[in-house]
Amino acid sequence: MVEFRVDRGGGLPAYLQLVQQAREALRLGWLRPGDKLPTVREVVATSGVNPNTVLKAYRELEFAGLVEARQGAGTFVKAALGSVEPEVMAELREQLGDWVRTARTAGLEDEDIHALVGVVLTGENNNG
Amino acid sequence: MVEFRVDRGGGLPAYLQLVQQAREALRLGWLRPGDKLPTVREVVATSGVNPNTVLKAYRELEFAGLVEARQGAGTFVKAALGSVEPEVMAELREQLGDWVRTARTAGLEDEDIHALVGVVLTGENNNG
Amino acid sequence: MVEFRVDRGGGLPAYLQLVQQAREALRLGWLRPGDKLPTVREVVATSGVNPNTVLKAYRELEFAGLVEARQGAGTFVKAALGSVEPEVMAELREQLGDWVRTARTAGLEDEDIHALVGVVLTGENNNG
Amino acid sequence: MVEFRVDRGGGLPAYLQLVQQAREALRLGWLRPGDKLPTVREVVATSGVNPNTVLKAYRELEFAGLVEARQGAGTFVKAALGSVEPEVMAELREQLGDWVRTARTAGLEDEDIHALVGVVLTGENNNG
DNA sequence: GTGGTCTAGACCACC
DNA sequence: GTGGTCTAGACCACT
Fold it and tell me: Quick check: B36 contacting A, CB < 8 Å?
């Protein structure tokens, strides 16, 4: 079961954090079509946000066609995001893990790594 | 000179995007102590946000001790973030570029990649 | 409940006056951890400044780690400043009151007294 | 000779700091009618502000009737502020010094002391 | 009804 | 022409 966490104080709206974490879980295959999302009450209990905030996030996911709320039953995953085979994903993950270890050894912090990934993905070139 | 871009509509507050981009530039060494940040008016011109939004971002950076605003002169970088040698950074970047190419070939989209990086960094293990 | 007042026309920015009054209240124990600050709207009503000015002051206090803004709930004192016992404080206050009376009898105005306190505190010696 | 100091970064306008320091010097008798204020150049050299800023402060003092600018000669004190005898002032200062020592021993910091003085002067009563 | 974000625009302090 | 302060007011996130 996916578990949500909310970090207050970072400026990022709580409901957005929930939406992004759900999307991430879908991306990585932690959530697959048919899976049940935690109930609003469970999310409230584990993350400390207001029920309405959770509802808003779930509504947003439903609007995006990713989940489906079934009255009295809960909220369920409707569509998948990404379709990479688990084995391929695992392989990529291992390779990335190696690289991350190298980067950390070189002195990069997590924030540096995120920044570098962003740059490489957008293909910006500030190598001069 | 660093150039800021603001993507409205993503829910992420404009001033936060500016703060993060500045931090990223510091992280990657694009901005070094003593460097001048674009003036408020320049950012307004290139990104389309309101001057006060830029001021708020700059103030946040100042609070964090990263930059220093000098009345009538501009805003300048005060402290560095991270101190990895450019050559090392370039090497890491190349390796990461290779991995990204592999990942994309396997069908991962940018969002998948970001999610995977996040997971690997936090060391979460949902393989089981 | 602490009540803020803003004196326009003294050149001192309104938001700074609010910050200083809050700090003063914390210093003197009028505000203690957990206490609720007046809402933005209340301050607006009692002091006549703009809501954004109050927000700026509250944000500054939050940056300083003194208060905590809880969305939809209000702004609350997080940390104490100084920790002198109320009785000790009262005793000191009484002694100071005596001295002030003497000083005023001698012809000193409030501004003189403030100046003299500043000098004594910084230990400057221009008796020369 | 009075020496001005300017503390940037406190939010308080530089020219106001100069004005207040001049007033304080007049209050405490460090500057007496006929005395010469430091030249603009000297202030610039010792405080690091812009000449125009000093000029603005001196203009303000002149407007208040406290000083007088004599072309080519400098700026001179015209009027006194406060008229307490030096011996009385010294006596008060000594008494205040005793009280300050007591307060500091009790754990009060300078900021607490300033706050307390402000409260006693305005006669506010929050003793409950 | 709470605080937070953003805008448009005026005016000030400073270089 | 630089950053800083403040206003008026709209709209959003959250309790």
Answer: no
Q: What is the pLDDT of residues C16-75, one digit of tens each?
A: 999 999 999 999 988 999 999 999 999 999 998 999 999 999 999 998 899 999 888 899
What are C5's two structure tokens?
A: 């007042």
**SS (HEC) of A48-94:** CCCHHHHHHHHHHHHHCCCEEEECCCEEEECCCCCCCCHHHHHHHHH
Cα D90 to Cα A117: distance, rounded to the nearest angstrom? 67
Q: What is the pLDDT of residues B55-74, one digit of tens each?
A: 999 998 988 889 999 888 89
- Tokens 């005395």 label which residue? D35
**Which single residue has its CA nearest the C1' atom of nucleotide F6?**
C53
Residues D16-52 pLDDT 10s: 999 999 999 999 888 999 999 999 999 999 998 999 9
Which domains does chain A carry? 14-77 (1.10.10.10), 86-122 (no CATH)
Residue D68 three-state SS: strand
Q: How far are the Cα atoms of C1, C54, C69, C83 from residue C65, in angstroms, in the given order?
A: 20, 17, 11, 16
Which residue in the set A27, A116, A126 is minimally distant from B92, CB to CB? A116
CB burial readout D35-54, b (16+ within 10 A) else e: eebbebeebbeebebeeebb
The amino acid at A97:
G
Other residues' Cβ atoms within 10 Å of the Cβ of residue A117: 23
- What is the H or E stretch that residue C112 is in? helix C110-122
C-beta atoms of D82 and C27 within 8 A: no
Question: What are the backbone angles phi and psi of residue A118, rounded to the nearest 5°?
Answer: -60, -45
State residue B11 phi and psi, 5-degree precision: 85, -25
* Residues of chain A neighbouring B124 (CB-CB closer than 8 A): none
